[in-house]
Amino acid sequence: MSLHDLFVIILISLLIVELPAFGLAKLFEKAGIPSWKAWVPFYNTWEIVKATRLKKHWFYWQFLPVAGWFISIWLLVEFVKLFGKFGFLDHAAAALLGVVYFPYIGTDKKVKYLGPEAVKNHKKTTLREWIDAGVFAVVAATLIRVFVFEAYTIPTGSMEKTLLVNDFLFVSKLSYGPRIPNTPLAIPFVHHTLPIFNSKSYTEVVHLPYTRWFASPVKRNDVVVFNFPAGDTLTRELDSQDPYYDILQSEEMRQYQQLKGQIPNEAELRAISKQKAREIVWADYTIMTRPVDKRENYIKRCVAIAGDTIQIVDGILFVNGQKAYISPSSATDYVVTTTNNRILSEDELREAGIRLNTDERNPDFIPYGPNSYMINMTEGEAEILKKIPNVTVTRKLENVGDPRIFPRDTALVLWSTDEFGPLWIPKKGATIALTPRNIACYKRAIKVYENNSWEERDGKIFINGQEANSYTFKMNYYWMMGDNRHRSQDSRFWGFVPEDHVVGEAWLIWMSWDKGVRWNRMFRTIH
After folding, report:
1. Please, which residues have CB within 8 angstroms of residue 291's CB and are 6 or more apart in sequence?
2. Cα 24–28–29 angle (5° rounding)?
3. Are 488 and 300 in contact (CB under 8 A)?
4. Of 216, 282, 346, 461, whose CB has the highest number of CB atoms within 10 Å?
5. Is the Cα dihedral 204, 210, 211, 217 positive or negative?
6. Are residues 189 and 140 in contact, defined by beta-carbon separation less than 8 angstroms?
């Protein structure tokens, strides 16, 4: 645990016992306790322990990291019982709305101090006992999930061989500061869709702006969980399995090819293709949107932070002109050929120390014939294979420009997964000149992520109705790439990750499964 994490935990502990202080002071007076004691953090809960005649050890349990928060809240609930407050709503208000509830009952002349005997004589029904226990468990788990850590499962091989399919992780929310949900009214423990009913698990009746407590920036090379930036719009039929923007782009390309001979003007051809594609997709699918906190969770490595400039040359990533860090467990595809009728097998490679996954949908070992293979390996594993006689190992490169690669505007920029950039990552407070070449890269960040209106007419750009030839960014952005470089849908395909999409840092593998427990991965920290 870092000093920053420790500071956040201590600060939240202090806020829990200090925010209700004004109301506690009034209640202390009614209970015959000097009111000034209510303003001293933890001295006030010591007085509560004495007044309620609880065992003294409960006071010390408050200083446990995170768990102590719930002990402090429980003590506040026990205290209001001394004033005859036994109702479920009273206890919920004391636990969740203490800053308002305690002043309310503290200044209410009808509220009298009854003492611990009244609590002793009060009997709760069995149903009420179960309700209280269930509510406390749900509230505690929800608060931990929002503010401390969340469990996450690796669904794909995009981070192999750093993270494997069916690795179960804890994701720290403290690393970058807890993010307050945009949609706080939601079913607990469900992300965006209710199982069985296949309906939304949240409502946007209350929609909060982006807020992050005790914010700390993402560091270069952190393994980060974030909300999929291109997941703002999607189809009900395919959801994130086939992203809306991929469907739209595919249809645009189809329309472009069909109309190419009919419309000689290139700009007009592209505009009409785009309009027709949108009409067709919207007619064929049910289009819906999701708020930031309900978009799909992705996990990648942050290879570049705000203000960095990235470039990929021959498959090698450079950040600010320097060769970037490559995790020893980072994998990529290699073309392997053999001579003298040499045949390679998966078992032989495993015995040599090369790890191959068992996922039939995306295998690491693909024979192209008796003398040719494509094998997904780390650099270290490739070196092992090079030492085997009659074997030639060559790194596979995708150098041909690909229209699916960011920024997906082939009229201005055409990059590939292994030949990309240079590209500057937007930084909060930094101003850039808007040029015909770079607007393709930064338009979505300005328009969608930072919520500005954008219009282009007569060769000019208008932002929020005003002509603009420059823009100052309001947020930091990050560039995320999978460690499994040739098998990862990452920033190379959909661009920047805004800071408000960051969920947390991948911290610990607590469980791993592949036809049985992978014991050697249990309780392994993630680097």
Report:
1. 182, 183, 202, 204, 207
2. 125
3. yes
4. 461
5. positive
6. no
Instruction: Give the span between the Cα atoms of 368 and 375, in whole angstroms.
Output: 10
- Element (H or E) spanning 277, and its range? helix 266-284
As a whole number of angstroms, the distance between CA 168 and CA 509 comes to 6
Handedness of CA 15, 21, 27, 29 (dihedral sign): positive
Nearest CA-CA partner of 512 in 159, 178, 222, 142: 159
CA distance 186 to 189: 9
pLDDT value, residue 426: 98
> Which pairing describes strands 297-304 and 223-227: parallel, antiparallel, or unpaired?
antiparallel
Q: How far apart are CA 490 and CA 57, in angstroms?
A: 50
Q: In the prediction, which pLDDT does 493 show? A: 95
In the predicted model, residues of the chain with pLDDT beneath 70 are 1-5
Q: Are 508 and 526 in contact (CB under 8 A)?
A: yes
State the pTM of this model.
0.81
Is the Cβ–Cβ distance between 125 and 131 less than 8 Å? Answer: no
CA distance 478 to 485: 17
Give the count of alpha carbons within 13 A of 197, CB side only: 8
The residues near 50 (Cβ < 8 Å, ≥ 6 apart) are none
Number of residues that make up the chain: 527
468 Cβ neighbours under 8 A, 6+ residues apart: 434, 461, 462
> What number of other Cβ atoms are within 10 A of residue 44's Cβ?
24
Look at residue 505 in the predicted model and tell me its pLDDT. 94
The Cα 95–Cα 75 span in angstroms is 9
Neighbouring CB atoms inside 10 A of 128's CB total: 13
Distance, in Å, from the CA atom of 426 to the CA atom of 406, rounded to the nearest integer, reads 15
Beta bridge partners of 332: 377
Backbone angles phi, psi at 284, to 5 degrees: -85, -25
First to last CA, the chain: 15
CA angle in degrees (0–180, nearest 5) for 415-440-228: 80
C-alpha 95/C-alpha 126 separation (Å) is 21
pLDDT, tens digit, 9 for 90 and up, residues 253-264: 999 899 888 888
Name residue 524's amino acid. Answer: R
Rg (CA), the chain: 29
Contacts of residue 45, Cβ cutoff 8 Å, sequence gap at least 6:
17, 59, 62, 72, 75
Nearest to 153 by CA among 201, 193, 196, 191: 191
The CA angle 15-20-26, to the nearest 5 degrees, is: 150
* Phi, psi angle pair for 373, to nearest 5°: -145, 155
pLDDT at 466: 94
- Rounded CA separation 233/407 (Å): 17
* 198 φ/ψ sector (left φ>0, alpha ψ -120 to 50, else beta): left
Taking the C-alpha atoms of residue 393 and residue 378, their distance in angstroms, rounded to an integer, is 12
Note the pLDDT of residue 213. 82
Q: Find out whether 75 and 51 touch, Cβ atoms under 8 Å.
A: no
Maximal C-alpha separation, the chain: 96
